[in-house]
From TrEMBL:
<feature type="domain" description="Ketoreductase">
    <location>
        <begin position="7"/>
        <end position="190"/>
    </location>
</feature>
<dbReference type="Pfam" id="PF13561">
    <property type="entry name" value="adh_short_C2"/>
</dbReference>
<keyword id="KW-0520">NAD</keyword>
<keyword id="KW-0560">Oxidoreductase</keyword>
<dbReference type="InterPro" id="IPR002347">
    <property type="entry name" value="SDR_fam"/>
</dbReference>
<comment type="similarity">
    <text>Belongs to the short-chain dehydrogenases/reductases (SDR) family.</text>
</comment>
<protein>
    <submittedName>
        <fullName>SDR family oxidoreductase</fullName>
    </submittedName>
</protein>
<dbReference type="InterPro" id="IPR036291">
    <property type="entry name" value="NAD(P)-bd_dom_sf"/>
</dbReference>
<dbReference type="InterPro" id="IPR057326">
    <property type="entry name" value="KR_dom"/>
</dbReference>
Amino acid sequence: METMKEKVVMITGAAAGIGLACAEAFAKAGATTILVDINKPEPQTRKLTDEGFKAVAYGCDVSDTQAVKEMVDWIVATYGHLDAALNNAGIQTPQRPMAEITDEEFDRTVAVDLKGVWNCMRYEIIQMLKQGGGAIVNTSSQGGVTGFPGQAAYIACKHAVIGLTRTAAIDYAAKGIRINAICPGAIRTPMAEELIRRNPNLEQELIRDIPAGRLGKPEEIANAVLWLCSPQASFVDGHALLVDGAFSI
Ligand code: NAI
C-alpha cells in the first residue's frame, strides 16, 4: 500500500543495514526517498529505481554541519518539501573499557552519533516549520536505555539522542512536527556482524539474553519507523520505541 505517496523522505546511513531497509520500505510505500550516506549510495539507490521506485542517492558526512545544511537546502530546492526524516547514520567505538577509549575515538563517536543527529534535525526542523509540519525519527538504541560493556562513548550518545528527541518533541509539538526515537535491539546488520566477527561468542551471548531467542532483522526496524512517520502515529510524539525482542525488559 502506498502510504507515503507524494511524501519526500530523507534517510541517513542508508547504504547498509537498518538505514537501507528503511529506505527500501519508504520507497516501496511510494515516497520519494533520498538515500544519504558518507559515500553516495548509488548501487543501493539504482536497485530501487530499477524496480520502479522513486529514490535518489546523496553523499554527505552527517558530522559536517555545512554539508548537512546544503543537503537539506538541495532537497527543498529540488522537491519543494521534506515530509519525513530518519536520522540513523551511526558508528561504534572500538570495544574497550571506558578509560581505554582515546579522546579522538570519543570525539568522532560524538561527532557522528550525536552531533550528526543534531545537525540533521536542526535543518529538517527549520524546513518543517516553514511547511507547517513533518515527522522525524532518530535512531537511538536499546543501549539508549541500558548500558553495554565496552561501548561507553557510543552508549552515551545513544542516551543523549533520546534526551534530544524528547526535548525537541516538546519544543515543536504545537507546530505539527512529531519527533520520536527508535531503539533497536541486536539487529543483524554489517555493524552487528563486525562486532560478532571481533567476538565470536557474542552472537550466542546476545541470543541467550533476548527472550525472542534471535537477533532482529533490519526490516523489523523499518516497519516500526514507517509507522512512526505515518498518520497512524499522529499522536505518538517524543517516544523512544524499543524494538528488541524484549531484550531490555
Ligand atoms: P551499519 O554500520 O550497517 O550502517 C550504518 C551506516 O551509516 C553505514 O552505511 C555508514 O556508512 C553510515 N555512516 C557512518 N558514518 C556516517 C557519517 N558520518 N555520515 C553519513 N553516513 C555515515 O549500521 P546499522 O547496524 O544499520 O546501524 C544503523 C543505526 O542503528 C546506527 O545509528 C546504530 O547505532 C543503530 N543501532 C544498530 C543496532 C544493531 O544491532 N545493528 C542496535 C541499535 C542501534
